[in-house]
């Protein structure tokens, strides 16, 4: 059977206070979240394969998240069994998923500018209100099958205040979110981070 890519899922990543503060901040910025895009052949476009809303600037939390991840780069490289590399910039975006949001199977290594450094590790910090108001929205990591091997996958639940890390080259998808009629504050929120090669 094809082997799964290593991944790390860390619960209670930030303090409860900071977690609640970031979620409240996202709700306050509701109108600044814009339709998410994908890059296909270097061109930015809106696509049915990625349905969500994205916020690019979210200081001071952007820096707070980047710093807490940077401290853990050696542990992530170790845990994901990757070869050591010099970590450079940590790219980030804040994404919000409502009813019928999804992100079909893809890899994160595609870069949209020639000058951009490659993404090595994908890290996602999840937030949602308690009790959780949506269903679905699991992150599914697929195996790559060689020859006759059967493809399989693992589903990871986007639990509030948890951090998921996996190699950016692993195929993955966000399963459809089912949440008819929910308020913006009850959506599935994720802060995507990519650790780039220096
Ligand atoms: O939200 C997630 O679980 C992952 C999102 C993702 O794969 C991406 O934005 O590239
Ligand atoms: Fe992704």
TrEMBL record:
Looking at the UniProt entry, the stretches that span the membrane are: none
Secretion signal, residue range per the UniProt entry? none
All copies of domain Fe2OG dioxygenase, residue ranges: 76-197
Q: Which cofactor does it need?
A: L-ascorbate
Gene3D superfamilies (UniProt xref):
q2cbj1_9rhob like domain
Q: Any idea which UniProt keywords this protein has?
A: Dioxygenase, Iron, Metal-binding, Oxidoreductase, Vitamin C
Concerning Pfam families, the annotation shows: 2OG-FeII_Oxy_3
Question: Which PANTHER family does the annotation name?
Answer: EGL NINE HOMOLOG-RELATED, HIF PROLYL HYDROXYLASE, ISOFORM C
- Entry protein name: 2OG-Fe(II) oxygenase
| Native source organism of the sequence | Dyadobacter subterraneus
User: Upper taxonomic classification of the species?
Assistant: Bacteria, Pseudomonadati, Bacteroidota, Cytophagia, Cytophagales
